[in-house]
Write a structure and sequence with these properties.
- 55% of the residues lie in helices and 12% in strands.
- It contains 38 helices and 17 strands.
- α21 (441-455) crosses α28 (556-571) and α37 (800-810) packs antiparallel against α38 (844-859).
Length: 860
């Protein structure tokens, strides 16, 4: 006798058997079919058990719906079922339904059960698109076949035909809406395999369109109806099988229905699918590149099907026919689409393989599918002679701001970009397997152009300096080319910037670019990370830093180009990489470098600022003689880097420090930077900065920047910038007091800071270690004449900054200032150091000792 327990044990046993044997099936379709067969068997057993416990149940039919009906089951797919009843549901019907539903849930499946009277089917389908879609795919499982036949007739006569055009348009709009919502999901670091562009939902849409429009029973019939070419069909089926295999592994990894490919899942899936890496590329990167290429191809095929469907509807006068207008240069327009009047247009005028994109973009037109195919068919015309002859035209096209993103995207999709820049093919769908980059290399590169496009229109005040720089650039083509080539060296070994510069030189020569312009492009590619590095890691008030940075540039034009390249590169990374804090630093570096390159003496400017601020200090402290005398002892560097009003505020705090009250803490909410400045004035003592940072860490505040200054009376002024977790809102008074008290207690040594940090660590879940990157400790004794700068690159953890600062104290090193940065799971911290005698650290033995001690803390 069947029992729920028997059915459950049988289901679990064979479900696990299918899982363990999944790699033995020759295709993913066999795997899905086996899962479907098991599900059919379980559903039928559940029906029979329900039938036994109910009395006579005439007029019941149980159907499979959706992916279950199509036999496209994944391990944790919903089991979509329709229970049909003839006439009004009787008590026996209700008993059957209740028992069946209970059995399905008790055995551990995830059923999605609809219950409908046969006479309600048409109305339910027409009122709800989701229900209508679910009814399209159906399969008989149990019960009355005559009732199932009645259901099929209703679907055919009253659902499939009635409102067919509107339903098709809803499906097409759904694809467009998904593409808008998941615009870049194909190339996202963690794509959605079902709803994202090029995902499983796109394949389903092709099937639904063909079933409704042509009554096709399977995707094979799309070729017969000229919806797909044979090559497109073969590619679609191949991609579909691949996506199903990936989805199966994704379900198994998460042990539930889950369609987002997380980074951790990607690593496991790549291993399970048999990928193996090399010395230069990880297995997971090979896997994701395959995925991106297939998803991109599937998305392109889906868009072709949509275009052909719309053309079909239009030809049947189902949609309003469009008027075709003849344009100049052999082009024509219908609706918002550009097409060509002759198939020989590109043979007769090869230059139009480039200019067609700017022609369409200027008029706000998209290229027709047939035109794109014609362009692809004629890219054989783009040889070395063509590239050299039309190199200038190419530069003009890719820099047609504000249309450059659209132009280059279309060039890329039509294979013209790769024909002009063959090296770009290596970037196609190449993943950047880290938390920092959100996109594949090619998507990131082309997306960067869109941020320059935006500068050509209306912009917020925070971007006006970039817009001003863009208007002053004489050779905008060099900017666009540098953006396209800045990551061209990725995948070619270590130091992609240097490799990319060498490749850029070859590319520029091929394009017929002159030597001076070639040098400019190569400089930009080689140093495209330099400006962000200097802005975020170095003290921009240090004249040496500015002079060091500008030594890499040959002109003000190169500075503007690098400034805009850096802005576009950081913006296109994704997320909030170019936040207000980094944006301000980048613009400050640009402004000061512009002065230096224009032969304006930075030292003269330094002297003028210092003199002006000392006059202000004298004027404002005449009635405060003690503060005035104390201000005279402050060195010029601190005067230059700190506003007079702030110096007075800090000195007033310092004046209040005494033996009884030896520490004061103030908070300044910096709304423009989305940050909080913590100002600590205290009697100097060992490990002071370390204790302050430890206190902040124990409360889970993210530290961005720190500056330390000690007055002649041995009172320190410490300024620490932290992220504001209450962005857009007032920081609660109770939180402000808690923060101040924690710092005071920690500095006075009344709080066990190590214990506090450990408690904080226990409440914060560390991210799973996905990316294996080496820790680095790098010394720089060139950028500053006064300080030794040390850069530390390491995996982040709670208390790391505190441990680093304690190590400096242990080694009798003084930290003058620090720039703290965290990129998701990595810290990139820079410290300006002096030895105990106030000198730079140049002895290699001492540097090795520092490295050894810091390494111990980093590895802890």
């Amino acid at each position: 006798m069947q029992t729920i327990e028997n059915i459950k044990n049988y289901y679990n046993e064979y479900w696990l058997k299918i899982k363990n044997n999944r790699h033995s099936y020759s295709t993913p379709w066999q795997f899905s079919q086996r899962l479907t067969e098991l599900t059919d068997e379980i559903v039928i057993r559940a029906c029979k058990l329900a039938e036994e416990q109910a009395e006579k149940i005439d007029g019941i039919a149980v159907l499979a719906l959706g992916g279950y009906a199509r036999e496209q089951m994944a391990p944790h797919s919903d089991i979509d079922i329709l229970i049909l009843h003839k006439g009004k549901a009787t008590k026996n019907h209700e008993a059957f339904i209740n028992t069946f539903t209970t059995v399905m849930w008790d055995i551990g499946t995830n059923p999605g059960i609809q219950i409908k009277g046969i006479k309600d089917v048409a109305r339910a389908a027409m009122e709800d698109e989701v229900v209508r879609t679910s009814f399209i795919d159906n399969r008989f499982l149990f019960g009355s076949k005559s009732d199932y036949e009645s259901f099929l007739k209703i679907i055919s006569d009253k659902v499939m035909e009635k409102g067919k055009t509107e339903f098709l348009m809803m499906k097409i709009d759904a694809v467009r809406n998904r593409n808008a919502k998941f615009r870049d999901s194909i190339f996202r670091l963690q794509p959605n395999i079902k709803e994202g562009s090029g995902g499983i939902r796109d394949i389903n849409t092709i099937y639904w369109i063909c079933k409704i429009l042509y009554k096709a029973r399977n995707l094979q019939e799309t070729v017969k109806h000229n919806v797909l070419t044979q090559a497109e069909y073969d590619a679609l089926i191949d991609n579909c099988g691949y996506l199903f295999a990936v989805r199966n592994e994704l379900h198994y990894y998460h042990n539930r229905k889950y369609d987002l490919m997380t980074l951790e899942a990607q690593m496991e899936i790549s291993k399970n699918l048999g990928y193996s890496g090399t010395h230069s590329i990880q297995s997971v990167e090979l896997f994701m590149r395959d995925y991106y290429i297939r998803a991109k191809q599937t998305s392109e095929i889906t868009n072709k099907v949509i275009s052909r469907t719309l053309a079909k509807l239009s030809s049947k006068s189902i949609l309003k026919k469009t008027h075709i207008s003849k344009l100049s240069d052999g082009y024509a327009q219908y609706a918002n689409t550009l097409t060509v009047l002759s198939k020989d247009i590109f043979v007769e005028s090869p230059k139009k393989l480039i200019t067609v994109f700017t022609y369409a973009a200027r008029r706000g037109l998209k290229l027709s599918d047939s035109t794109c195919e014609l362009i692809r068919d004629n890219t054989y015309l783009i040889d070395n002679a063509f590239i050299k002859e039309h190199g200038a035209t190419f530069l003009k096209a890719i820099s047609s701001f504000p249309n450059s993103f659209k132009v280059v995207t279309n060039m890329y999709n039509c294979n013209v970009l790769k024909s002009m820049l063959p090296e770009f093919e290596e970037l196609e769908c190449r993943p950047q397997f880290d938390y920092y980059h959100h996109y594949t290399v090619d998507e990131h590169t082309i997306l960067a152009l869109s941020y320059i496009d935006k500068l050509a229109g209306s912009i917020p005040p925070s971007l006006e300096l970039y817009q001003s720089a863009l208007t002053k650039i004489e050779r905008k083509g060099l900017l666009a080319l540098a953006i396209l080539l800045h990551d061209i060296g990725k995948g070619q070994g270590k130091n992609h910037s240097l490799v990319g510069a060498k490749m850029a030189k070859i590319i520029c020569k091929r394009l017929g670019i002159g030597m001076d312009d070639t040098d400019t492009v190569c400089t930009l590619v080689e140093h495209h990370l330099l400006m962000s590095h200097i802005a975020q890691r170095r003290d921009l008030h240090d004249i040496d830093v500015i002079e060091h940075f500008t030594s890499f540039l040959n002109s003000e034009e190169e500075l503007r180009l690098l400034f805009l390249l850096t802005y576009a590169d950081m913006s296109a990374v994704g997320g909030a990489t170019l936040n207000e804090w980094k944006n301000n630093l980048l613009q400050e570096l640009y402004t000061k470098s512009e002065m230096a390159i224009n032969n304006e003496s930075l030292q003269d400017e330094f002297d003028v600022v210092v003199k002006r601020r000392r006059v202000k200090l004298e004027e404002r402290t005449r009635q405060l003689p003690d503060i005035f005398e104390l201000s005279k002892t402050i060195d010029d560097e601190y005067i230059y880097s700190t506003k007079a009003v702030h110096i007075i505020r800090y000195l007033q705090m310092a004046q209040n420090v005494n033996d009884e009250n030896d520490i004061f803490v103030e908070l300044d909410i910096r709304e423009g930077l989305n940050a909080i400045e913590v100002i600590v004035c205290a009697k100097d003592r060992p490990r002071l900065l370390g204790r302050i940072c430890g206190a902040l860490t124990s409360l889970s505040y993210n530290i961005k920047w720190a500056k330390i200054y000690t007055l002649e009376n041995n009172i320190t002024i410490d300024n620490i910038i932290i992220d504001n977790p209450f962005s857009g809102k007032k920081m609660p008074d109770v939180k402000q007091e808690a923060l101040k008290n924690r710092i005071i207690e920690t500095v006075k040594d009344t709080k066990d800071i190590q214990k506090q940090i450990q408690q904080s660590e226990s409440t914060i879940k560390s991210p799973t270690q996905v990316f294996a990157k080496k820790d680095k400790i790098v010394f720089d004794n060139e950028v500053s004449t006064q300080y030794t700068v040390i850069d530390i690159y390491a995996k982040d953890r709670i208390g790391l900054l505190y441990d680093i600062l304690c190590t400096f104290s242990k080694l009798d090193l003084n930290v003058a200032r620090a720039k703290i940065s965290t990129d998701i799971d990595r810290v990139v911290d820079s410290f300006y150091l002096l030895d105990k005698d106030g000198n730079k650290i140049t002895d290699q033995v001492v540097l090795d000792i520092i490295t050894e001690e810091l390494s111990k803390q980093i590895e802890t």
